[in-house]
Amino acid sequence: MTERRTVRMVTNGPIMVEGPVRVEMPSGEVVESDRFMVALCACKRSKTFPLCDTSHRRRVRAG
Ligand code: FES
Q1: Which residues contact 30 (CB under 8 A, 6 or more apart)?
Q2: Where are the domains of the chain?
């Protein structure tokens, strides 16, 4: 029986995925992480996209 992986959506934050992971981007680029738990950016503000760099915590200036 195949063990199911847990993927956890964080409110206003990343998507937490049990690692290690291999992420295939639309461009064909492949990003790999060997971490036990990998945070994938869901806000698209990360400078290390598709990995979360905590940029989602920054407030966006109004006006
Ligand atoms: S979710 Fe963390 S930088 Fe985008």
Answers
A1: 22, 23, 24
A2: 7-57
